[in-house]
Design goal:
The protein is mostly helical. It has helices at 17-32, 37-66, 71-96, 101-121, 125-152, 159-192, 195-211, 214-219, 236-263, 267-275, 279-307, 309-329, 333-349, 351-361, 367-396, 398-420; strands at 4-5, 424-425, 434-435. A 3-stranded antiparallel β-sheet has the order 1-3-2, with no helix packed on it.
């Protein structure tokens, strides 16, 4: 077996708590300082595109509702983007293994902006469904490209920090986009006397911000795929040799997405229905939970150094489950808010780590396909479970639906540990944690 060393070894720190924190921050800054120029440029472009994505996530439903669309139609529009992402993710992964990433990033940024404009201005339902699906396809290329791009432009030393930092950058974009978009739309709408124009104007600003991502993307100096990366083939022989690994990668995100889709899209309604909260208060809680997720994602590499990738994911997911149980049963708002924030930070801490794990265990020629399978697993399960979750909440309430989510989270965490526990090891003769690809084949 040929293990891959992913991080330096660590021994328990000695000294005061303040001294340990200082050493931890110094170590973190050292790893961040190792990020390549290309990686930093991609992070900046991802941040700018992430702001636009969050603006649309927050305002599009409100715009459609103001324009006269009913909830069922709005749900279909939201689902159509996920359908587009799912359908095009694997073809995008294959394409990424054969082409330079820079022109793909530039093209996807432009195409996504164009389709976003049509989504913001279209009033015809069928056309809106089609354009939303096309925007999902364009966005899937950008999303699938991130894993292979980071693998090509990083070393083992800083890779875990880079994946966590990337996830944190997207969360920061979400905080800024959510905090500014709602207020800006309200101000513009009030002054113009037209709330639809307020929403559209804010969406246009979001699109403009995403187009600024072209600047860092154009500054990237990308090399063509290596000969190894250009070997991927979706053949029977390929799946015979590596089908087990593909199944594990897909199932990992599929099960988590299945549990999340039952309740996460409806947590804003949970706070409104159970605690009778106003939208601005709910928005404040969401900003806080995004901050919690940001801090959690940035702390991931610190935990990985001590426990390893696989065990860190398992520990944090298990630790989040009691807080979901609190949300399920409590009718005391302060306790619900604390549980909401801590659950979000703990459960999402493992998201970039799972992506990092998949990229490390994949061969070079499989990295684009692996990224696509991770995304398809999430989006395909989310499409199904969101529809089921709405039905369960309507007929059985939040407590029953959250308990279903808890059961799926427990099962998915158990499966994850069983499937990947032997893919990471720590031996006395080599520092740090090592991955063993053969175990996952």
């Amino acid at each position: 077996m040929t293990p891959v060393v992913t991080s330096e070894g660590s021994s328990p720190d000695s000294g005061s708590l303040a001294a340990r924190i200082r050493r931890g921050l110094t170590d973190y800054r050292r790893h961040v300082g190792l990020f390549s120029r290309n990686a930093r440029l991609y992070l900046l472009g991802s941040f700018l595109m992430g702001i636009n994505f969050q603006v649309f996530l927050l305002l599009l439903n409100l715009l459609l509702k103001e324009a006269g669309f009913v909830e069922g139609d709005i749900g279909l529009v939201a689902s159509s983007r996920a359908v587009g992402m799912s359908l095009f993710a694997i073809p995008a992964g294959i394409m990424l293994s054969r082409m330079r990433l820079k022109p793909i990033l530039v093209a996807s940024c432009l195409i996504f902006a164009v389709f976003s404009y049509f989504i913001a201005t279209t009033q015809q339902f069928v056309l809106l469904i089609g354009v939303s699906a096309l925007s999902g396809m364009a966005f899937s290329v950008y999303r699938v490209a991130s894993g292979p791009f980071y693998m090509r432009n990083s070393t083992k030393s800083e890779r875990t920090h880079l994946f966590s930092f990337s996830f944190g950058t997207n969360l920061l974009a979400g905080i800024i986009g959510a905090a500014g978009a709602g207020r800006l739309a309200a101000v513009v709408g009030e002054r113009a006397g037209d709330m639809i124009w307020g929403y559209q104007c804010t969406l246009f600003i979001g699109i403009g911000i995403s187009l600024l991502a072209l600047i860092p993307f154009l500054l990237i100096k990308s090399a063509p795929p290596s000969k190894d990366e250009n070997k991927i083939r979706l053949s029977r022989d390929q799946f015979r040799k590596r089908g087990g690994f593909y199944f594990k990668v897909f199932l990992t995100n599929f099960m988590i997405g299945m549990g999340a889709g039952l309740i996460i899209p409806f947590l804003n309604l949970y706070f409104r229905d159970r605690f009778n909260l106003a939208p601005d208060t709910i928005g404040l809680y969401y900003s806080v939970v995004h901050l919690s997720m940001l801090l959690g994602s940035l702390s991931g590499p610190v935990l990985v150094k001590r426990f390893g990738l696989v065990r860190t994911v398992v520990i944090t997911q298990v630790a989040s489950i009691p807080f979901m149980a609190v949300l399920s049963y409590t009718y005391w708002l302060p306790l619900a808010v604390v549980a909401f924030v801590l659950r979000g930070g703990l459960m999402n801490l493992g998201v970039p780590l799972v992506t990092n794990l998949g990229m490390e265990l994949a061969e070079k020629e499989e990295q684009g396909l692996t990224g696509a399978l991770l995304m398809v697993g999430w989006t395909s399960s989310w499409m199904v479970s969101t529809a089921v979750g709405g039905h369960l909440i309507e007929h059985f309430g939040y407590t029953f639906t959250m308990n279903m989510t808890i059961a799926i989270y427990i099962l998915s965490t158990l499966f994850f540990f069983v499937m990947f526990r032997r893919s990471e090891t720590r031996s006395g003769d080599k520092p740090g944690w090592q991955f063993v690809r053969e175990v996952t084949a």
